[in-house]
Write a structure and sequence with these properties.
- By secondary structure, this protein is of the alpha/beta class.
- Helix 1 links the parallel strand 5 and strand 6.
- The longest helix has 17 residues.
- Helix 1 runs parallel beside helix 9, helix 4 runs antiparallel to helix 5 and helix 5 packs across helix 6.
- It folds into 2 domains: 217 residues, Rossmann fold, CATH 3.40.50; 62 residues, no CATH class.
- It is globular.
- It is built from 9 helices and 10 strands.
- Helices cover 38% and strands 21% of the residues.
- It has a 6-stranded mixed β-sheet with strand order 3-4-6-5-7-8, sandwiched between helices.
Length: 284
């Protein structure tokens, strides 16, 4: 039994956890609650622990599944080419889910979009949060370019703590906020998860993109979609969110003010309200 704190009181939830077999590896997952399935995918600076503020309130209404993407958290490292959206399909099949609402932040926002295109029959709602998007031209974001060069140099010099701090400043604070304006607890939680990613080591296997690339196929998405973003995120992420909102048929857009790349951690009550209202409105 896992104990979650919520709104000043303790909620006890029975949580099932385990490892789902995937092609060439395994994924760690946790499941709680009953009802239509909702799957939570984490950012590339985190693991499934980033969803701690969502597990209790979401599992009061839905069957919630959170998992570590291959190469993160307790999931296995990929040693050869692999498909993130095929992994998600295998995970849901393993836990007996035929259809799910798919919520993904950053890296997992891109996975969620690919999954909705590759397996449309398995998706009853889609919530990309500050999402990546295969085929997008990232080179125009100067802040991201500088960050990439600095991170590469720090890691090459073996300065893991410096590289961790770079990620916290870039993704949690955002390009335009000072660190003292951001919740110190959130910064430390992301710092802990990012450090674990670096310590796990660079995987030898690379993820395979969906073909054709998702950026050319957004109009094909049929699931009800809420594109969500923090207003202090990178300019590239804001642009991707607008692309999704403009090109996915019927998509809605929501902006959480004064947050950057992890609004679900910075403003969990507002995030939960927005997402649960959306899910309730399209619930199968």
């Amino acid at each position: 039994m896992t104990i979650y704190a919520r709104a000043g009181r303790i909620k006890c939830r029975m949580v099932k956890n385990g490892f789902a077999p995937v092609d060439g590896g395994e994924l760690y997952y946790e499941v709680a609650g009953e009802g239509p399935a909702v799957v939570l995918g984490h950012a590339g600076i985190a693991d499934c622990r980033m969803w701690d503020p969502q597990m209790a309130p979401f599992s009061e209404r839905y069957r919630v599944i959170r998992y570590d993407v291959r190469g993160f958290g307790r999931s296995s490292r990929p040693e050869s080419e692999w498909s993130p959206h095929a992994d998600l399909s295998a995970l849901l099949t393993h836990v007996g889910v035929e259809r799910a609402a798919v919520i993904g932040v950053s890296m997992s926002g891109g996975i969620a979009i690919d999954f909705a295109l590759a397996y449309p029959q398995m998706v009853w709602a889609l919530v990309p949060v500050g999402a990546g998007l295969d085929g997008f031209d990232w080179s125009r974001d100067e802040a991201l370019k500088r960050f990439g060069e600095e991170e590469k140099a720090e890691l090459a010099a073996g300065k893991i703590e410096s590289a961790v701090e770079l990620n916290v400043r870039m993704w949690v604070d955002g390009p335009s906020r000072r660190a003292d304006k951001v919740d110190a607890v959130v910064r430390e939680k992301v710092r802990e998860m990012q450090r674990a990613i670096f310590e796990k080591g660079e995987p030898s296997g690379q993820p395979l993109p969906l073909e054709p690339l998702a950026i050319t196929r957004l109009e094909e998405i049929k699931a009800p979609t809420l594109a969500l973003v923090g207003d202090k995120d990178l300019s590239a992420i804001l642009e991707i969110t607008d692309l999704i909102a403009d090109r996915v048929p019927g998509a809605r857009k929501a902006v959480i003010r004064n947050t950057a790349h992890v609004p679900s951690m910075e403003r969990p009550e507002e995030f939960n309200r927005l997402v649960l209202e959306f899910l309730d409105s399209v619930r199968p």
